């Protein structure tokens, strides 16, 4: 008798092959049969009319701190995710010298917009090495948790206050040795950032941004010696020959997969290199998100365009409901309309706050594919008013504004084409990061409900393709060859989805982080059940109490 049998399902198995109807059986956490299943199960679920997919594997989440206090790993678990990878973009919390924890927290808070107070209160500090950090987070979860070692804590640990400077040969050798040890202890990979948008609280780019090719090659080769793991990087230089040269060197010498984030930068030279190297049997995978890099602007969040008006000081300490009421008051609106605009400390924030034609009222269908008519400038033009009035109207109505980074052309055709490229890999959810400006942990639901079903401004993606990109493809990139496929012998991680009813909820701000920290979240409807290692963890969106997830250690799956 099997532990669990799912009957009458429309099975999308994660391979990319066409969907088929059948049953699925799981025993001892492993799939035992797919197709026609005879006999009975200790529990049976009738999935008639529903999709059955593998659990989703999210490889870019920044849950490094949150896994210390949130064993469900919300909100990713609400969206069918059963495996996450953290330690992204070069930031993390190990190794760390005792007494310097706050410096890593400050960098994480600045780069990833995770409240520092929440990290201090929620993280039970006490480790020094990366292996000790893994031991500390080796607890039960609703999902499986893996993490990478980041370049920032490596440099900070080895170089101390010099971590922003050029590394010496001795520094590089010490970092390489720590990388070897981290991989032996179970790191899933190594990550680094060469992105100028990643800055600490003083405005300086984070440690490692200007690291030499020699340093990066040494760390990549140290990781390659482990025989497992993936290299992840975010860079502003992906079209520059020097950057591509060390990427190619690592791909050839280390023999490990490498994934580079390309969401805001199309990086044609990287795609060409990936095509060439993958044709030779190497693994370079440009990482693409569900939609262009974006920001949510709101009264409650990190980016509030009202702050550029001096008059806003009169109401900024009021409750959100009181602020919304005052935004409708004619006298207050007149003050805002007469204000001179104040620049923010950083030019990027100023741009996000007043580029009216790129600030969109989030479409009611949550398409994240707005048109000019959805922008504050478009709304103002239609009404014959100032864009400031459109801004105040939107916030007074409780709406969230969407700012799309990069060169958004008014549609997602280019995003779709990037996802369809042979060597792309799906990622960039930032599930536990950018708490005050983002909620892209919801992207699995978005990919299925919008990009694969509801999109009417261009072609959709086949459901089978979308499921493959979020399951088997992401799992294999990080060496997790035991999951992401509904076939006998594979891990019993499964979603049962009412595809017709699958729907995202609007973003909402809640204050459930430690120390009262706030974050955007999005819920979803349509997940009939999420199953981890054969145990139902979520049923109709509610946690069952089961925690069958565990820490994953690279090289030991």
**What Rg is obtained from the alpha carbons, in whole angstroms?**
23 Å
User: How many individual helices?
Assistant: 17
What quaternary form is this? single chain
What characteristic shape results from the CA principal axes? globular
**Portion in helices:** 25-40%
Contiguous uncertain segments of 5+ residues: none
The average pLDDT score comes to 97
Terminus-to-terminus distance = 27 Å
In total, how many beta strands? Answer: 25
Structural class given helices, strands, pairing?
alpha/beta
Largest β sheet strand count, sense and barrel closure: 9 strands, mixed
The fraction of residues assigned to DSSP E strands is: 15-25%
List the helices and strands and how they pair.
Elements: E1 2-11, E2 20-27, E3 30-35, E4 41-46, E5 51-54, E6 56-58, E7 81-86, H1 101-112, H2 116-122, H3 130-136, E8 144-147, E9 149-150, H4 151-159, H5 169-185, E10 189-194, H6 213-224, E11 230-235, H7 241-254, E12 258-261, H8 268-279, E13 284-288, E14 294-297, H9 320-326, H10 330-338, H11 347-354, E15 359-361, H12 376-383, H13 387-396, E16 401-404, H14 413-420, E17 425-426, H15 443-454, H16 463-470, H17 472-477, E18 494-497, E19 503-504, E20 508-510, E21 519-521, E22 524-525, E23 527-532, E24 535-539, E25 542-543
Parallel strand pairs: 1-4, 1-5, 6-7, 7-8, 9-10, 10-11, 11-12, 12-13, 13-17
Antiparallel strand pairs: 1-2, 2-3, 5-18, 14-16, 15-16, 18-23, 19-22, 20-21, 23-24, 24-25
């Amino acid at each position: 008798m099997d532990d669990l049998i799912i009957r009458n399902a429309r099975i999308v198995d994660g391979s990319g092959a066409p969907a088929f109807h059948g049953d699925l059986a799981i025993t001892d956490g492993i799939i035992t049969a797919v197709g026609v299943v005879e006999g009975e199960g200790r529990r049976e679920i009738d999935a008639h009319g529903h999709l059955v997919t593998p659990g989703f594997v999210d490889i870019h989440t920044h849950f490094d701190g949150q896994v210390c206090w949130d064993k469900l790993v919300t909100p990713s678990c609400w969206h069918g995710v059963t495996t996450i990878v953290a330690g992204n973009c070069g930031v993390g919390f190990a190794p760390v010298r005792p007494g310097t924890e706050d410096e890593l927290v400050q960098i994480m808070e600045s780069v990833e917009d995770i409240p520092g107070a929440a990290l201090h209160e929620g993280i039970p500090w006490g480790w020094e090495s990366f292996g000790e950090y893994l031991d500390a987070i080796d607890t039960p979860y609703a999902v499986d948790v893996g993490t990478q070692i980041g370049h920032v804590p490596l440099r900070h640990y080895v170089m101390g206050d010099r971590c922003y400077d050029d590394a010496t040969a001795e520094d590089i050798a010490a970092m390489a040795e720590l990388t070897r040890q981290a991989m032996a202890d179970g790191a899933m990979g190594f990550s680094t950032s060469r992105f100028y948008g990643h800055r600490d609280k003083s405005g300086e780019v984070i440690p490692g941004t200007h690291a030499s090719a020699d340093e990066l090659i040494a760390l990549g080769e140290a990781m390659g010696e482990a025989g497992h793991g993936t290299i992840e990087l975010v860079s502003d230089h992906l079209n520059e020959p020097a950057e591509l040269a060390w990427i190619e060197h690592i791909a050839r010498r280390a023999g490990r997969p490498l994934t580079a984030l390309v969401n805001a930068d199309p990086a044609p030279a990287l795609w060409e290199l990936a095509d060439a190297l993958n044709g030779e049997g190497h693994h370079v995978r440009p990482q693409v998100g569900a939609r262009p890099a974006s920001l949510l602007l709101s009264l409650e969040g990190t980016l509030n365009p009202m702050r550029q008006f001096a008059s806003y000081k009169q109401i900024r300490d009021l409750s959100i409901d009181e602020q919304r009421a005052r935004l409708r008051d004619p006298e207050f609106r007149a003050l805002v309309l007469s204000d001179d605009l104040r620049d923010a400390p950083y030019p990027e924030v100023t741009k996000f706050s007043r580029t009216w034609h790129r600030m969109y009222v989030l479409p009611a269908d949550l398409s994240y594919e707005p048109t000019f008519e959805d922008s504050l400038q478009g709304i103002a033009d239609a009404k014959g008013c100032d864009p400031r009035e459109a801004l105040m109207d939107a916030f007074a109505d409780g709406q969230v504004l969407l700012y799309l980074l990069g060169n958004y052309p008014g549609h997602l055709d280019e995003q779709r084409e990037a996802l369809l490229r042979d060597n792309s890999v799906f990622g960039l959810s930032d599930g536990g990061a950018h708490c005050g400006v983002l909620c892209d942990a919801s992207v699995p639901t978005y990919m299925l409900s919008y990009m694969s079903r509801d999109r009417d401004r261009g072609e959709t993606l086949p459901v089978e393709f979308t499921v493959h990109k979020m399951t088997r493809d992401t799992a294999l990139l990080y060496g997790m060859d035991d999951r992401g496929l509904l076939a006998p012998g594979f891990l019993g991680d499964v979603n049962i989805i009412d595809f017709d009813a699958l729907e995202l909820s609007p973003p909402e701000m809640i204050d459930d982080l430690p120390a009262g920290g706030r974050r955007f979240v999005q819920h979803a409807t349509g997940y009939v059940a999420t199953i981890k290692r054969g145990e139902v963890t979520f049923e109709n969106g509610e946690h069952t109490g089961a925690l069958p997830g565990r820490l994953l250690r690279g090289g030991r799956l």
